[in-house]
Amino acid sequence: MRQTKTYTTASPKIFKEALLSWSQQFDEVVWLDSNQHTNSYSSFDTLLAVDGLTALTTDCTNAFENLKEYQLQTKDWIFGYLSYDLKNDVEPLSSNNFDGLKFPDLYFFQPKKIIQIVDDEIRFVYLNMVADEIETDFSEISNYQSSSIKVATTKSKAHIKMRIFKDEYFRQVEKMLSHIRKGDIYEANFCQEFYMEDCLIDPIDIYKKLNEISKAPFASYVKLFDKFLLCASPERYLKKIGTKIISQPIKGTASRSTDKEKDILLRKELETNEKERSENIMIVDLVRNDLSKSALKGSVRVEELCKVYSFDQVHQMISTISSEVTQDMDAVDLLKDTFPMGSMTGAPKISAMKIIEELESFKRGLYSGAVGYFTPDSDFDFNVVIRSILYNQTNKYLSYGVGSAITEKSIPTNEYEECLLKAKAMRQVLEE
Fold this sequence. Notes:
Elements lengths: L1 E7 L3 H11 L5 E6 L12 E13 L4 H12 L3 E5 L4 H4 L15 E13 L2 E7 L5 H10 L18 E2 L3 H17 L4 E10 L6 H12 L3 E7 L2 E7 L2 E6 L2 E5 L1 E6 L4 H13 L1 H19 L8 E10 L3 E11 L6 H8 L7 E2 L1 H11 L10 E5 L5 E4 L4 E5 L4 E10 L5 H20 L1
Antiparallel strand pairs: 1-6, 2-3, 2-9, 3-5, 4-5, 4-17, 5-6, 7-8, 8-16, 8-20, 9-10, 10-19, 11-12, 11-18, 12-15, 13-15, 14-15, 17-18, 19-20
């Protein structure tokens, strides 16, 4: 049984920084940070889960059924991730491209310790707590000082490689455009991998730098023994609050400018860009179709269409789609009905995923997947794993993927430049 205790702090920012450092003593860590972005569907400023009591790790075979059983058995908070390659559990698909990261396809754990920050309140939610454990941890975090022991890191300048080069990227995009012209698909998200081999990094240091640059609303830091996700995602995949389901896909990206007038112009250009709006609307239609599989009749609604939001590095075009489901609808089935998210696949979804597998050069794995949690009441919230660095500490292999939506209006050079824009923050923190 979980026990809860709430404290207030005069310095939530300082406590938050100490909390993230304190969490590194544990083998299993999921850190979710809204970076103080708020909207009608915000639940917390920061949420931390550490120290697994039980765990589920599996490949894609029967993954959603295994997750359903695990979630029903625990009837508790569970935190973890869904990799993109769970598509192979949803549809008769496969993933045969190169995989340097070797992450499991799915990992969830039941944390002994959950700590939530909302404004100046710190809420501890502990499982099987020993006497005074919360008080001890609160005191330790409040007075926490980072260890002087530093993780060994690569001293030479980061040597970031590309899985495919520019000419090959153009050839693959042209093949995708050929599929679009033939009517096989209307849109597909084509991604490429940047990677480093034999590298040693300090994951928490890199995450802090990436988060400082991006300040994204769905940032996350995941440590599962020797595997790390450093994520600065601006996108929500799916959230469940009672019987309401919310999806907020992103399609449409523009750079920011330090010149205020130019920045306003860039935003307006994105708002009226015919290609970007077309991409977004196609994905909205796909999400509406996915949600309708489980929704009450007539309840699927577009709350926002092609609204532009500004983040520290980019402007993004975001739509919000919601639906209502029955009280007894299974939470895992809701995820399975909509997975993978339309913004990272294309339309029609199955055809797009087949072509993506054929033309891409790497196994996406956790990139294009989702990180999040289930509550004891079977509510959930998951992001989209983009703008992220993935790291296997044992293999010394680091990877980050970037992509863009290819439609009939796509110009390969522009798509390539969009990928480089999205990769900018990851490259910057690795080259510092």
